[in-house]
Design a protein that fits this description.
This protein has helices at 21-34, 73-94, 108-118, 130-134, 140-155, 164-174, 199-206, 226-232, 252-261, 276-285, 300-308, 320-323, 337-348, 351-365, 370-390, and strands spanning 5-9, 38-44, 52-55, 58-63, 99-103, 122-125, 158-161, 181-183, 212-217, 241-246, 268-272, 288-291, 312-314, 331-332. The chain is of the alpha/beta class. The protein has 2 domains: 5-187 and 369-390, 3-Layer(aba) Sandwich (Rossmann fold), CATH 3.40.50; 191-367, Glycogen Phosphorylase B (Rossmann fold, 3-Layer(aba) Sandwich). Strands 3-4-2-1-5-6-7-8 form an 8-stranded mixed β-sheet, with helices on both faces. It has a 6-stranded parallel β-sheet with strand order 11-10-9-12-13-14, with helices on both faces. α3 (108-118) runs parallel beside α5. The longest helix has 22 residues, at 73-94. The chain starts with a strand and ends in a 15-residue tail after the last helix.
């Protein structure tokens, strides 16, 4: 069967990067293009980025998302979907696209509407759920998000999850048949981590020569466990560590305040947003990378640390426990300050142990190359298209009127 032409909808795509979704969509799309799939990505516009451009073979359509004033995020998402649906209708009309691939609830409304307008099969990748992120659904805002997720899951022909943990969560929370769920992990491209760069200069930028560099990369939100890492820092004051915390999120100001209260201003550096090249350099020079997540569907940061050779200390929660193994590719420690401190100390004070973790993790990371991930995704596409072509849920053929001469 010929590879399908695919339209992906995602609210973020480089250079707009909010979390792990943007690099996932970019890398997956790029790998699919290499396998002969024509990929269109419809996403939000971004200052300075072209409205349409071809990026590594991906046809990227950036659509106005700020043309109408909105009072809050939920309303903005609603208007974004209206704009996506309007503009993507033209894209679908002008191109021979066989399949719509939606990424998370933020594009659910547009994706479902386009599915029915054009009678095309819809696949949904669910990267996380509101139920899992919040430990349940507790207020109207969370119920709104949960209902959008449930709607997208019901409407999708098949659902892709990045881990067995995530699949089980969706099956349990949304009463989905296991038959409809495919597990396709996230991937990693090792090449950017091999690019020559001035690593000593990067290290000097963030730490003194006599300091050990312990790295956290991720959103500054409750489910990532970053607060517990901050609370662990006083327990490690004897090891002369500089903790580099990279990322943005609603906890940032609270974390800055807490660092001051703990007297750790000279030992904890909250960098905010950093460019990808600098982050890759930090992974390569880090003496340890801490991933203390309380809730983690997969853990792309773990793959980045594994590839770069940064010894990992992790909670092992969720999908992290599926890609990492305690005492083999990482040190597992519960996501509480005492356990995190124990894990960091174990890695930093045992050079042979740390080196063994690093080498085994790098070997394991090779199995998550994006080409293999694209092959699995293409298998899901092919299965859907086979079922679709055998069925009768297709657009009606409009017969042209006969002209009498």
């Amino acid at each position: 069967m010929q590879a399908p032409n695919v339209l992906m909808l995602s609210w973020e795509f480089p250079p707009r990067i909010v979390g792990g979704l943007a690099p996932h969509v970019y890398e997956l799309s790029r790998a699919l293009v290499k396998k002969g799939v024509e990929v269109h990505v419809a996403t939000c516009d971004f200052p300075g980025a072209e409205a349409f451009e071809v990026v590594d073979g991906i046809k990227v359509h950036r659509i106005d998302s700020y043309g109408y004033p909105t009072p809050d995020f939920a309303t903005w998402i609603s208007m974004m979907n209206v704009n996506l649906k309007r503009e993507v209708s033209t894209i679908l009309s002008d191109n021979d696209i066989n399949l719509i691939h939606a990424h998370d609830w933020l594009v659910a409304s547009a994706s479902i509407g386009l599915k029915h307008m054009f009678r095309l099969p819809l696949i949904a990748t669910i990267h996380s759920t509101e139920y899992g992120r919040r430990g349940g659904v507790h207020n109207d805002y969370q119920r709104m998000i949960g209902s959008m997720e449930a709607w997208l899951i019901r409407e999708a022909w098949r659902i892709i999850c990045c881990s067995r943990f995530m699949a089980n969560e969706i099956i349990s929370a949304y009463k989905v048949s296991d038959y409809r769920v495919d597990i396709v992990p996230n991937g990693i491209d090792p090449k950017p981590f091999e690019v020559p760069m001035d690593l000593p200069a990067i290290r000097r930028r963030f730490a003194e020569p006599n300091e050990r560099l312990v790295l956290y990369v991720g959103r500054l939100v409750q489910e990532k466990g970053v607060s517990n890492l901050i609370e662990a820092t006083p327990f490690l004051s004897d090891l002369n560590i500089k903790f580099i915390v990279v990322g943005e999120g609603y906890l940032k100001e609270e974390l800055i305040r807490r660092v001051k209260e703990l007297g750790q201003e000279k030992k904890v550096y909250l960098t905010g947003f950093l460019d990808s090249e600098t982050i890759r350099g930090l992974f390569r020079v880090a003496d340890a990378c801490v991933i203390p997540s309380i809730y983690e569907p997969f853990g792309i940061v773990a793959l980045e640390a594994m590839t770069a050779g940064a010894p990992i200390v992790t909670s092992g929660s969720g999908g992290l426990g599926e890609i990492l193994e305690h005492e083999k590719t990482a040190t597992f420690a519960a996501s509480n300050p005492g356990s995190i401190a124990w894990g960091v100390r174990r890695v930093l004070t045992n050079p042979q142990y740390s080196e063994a973790l690093r080498m085994e993790a790098q070997r394991e990371a090779a199995s998550y190359e994006w080409g293999a991930i694209a092959t699995s995704t293409l298998g899901t596409y092919t299965r859907i298209m086979s079922e679709y072509n055998e069925g009768n849920w297709k657009p009606s053929r409009i017969k042209k009127p006969k002209v009498n001469n």
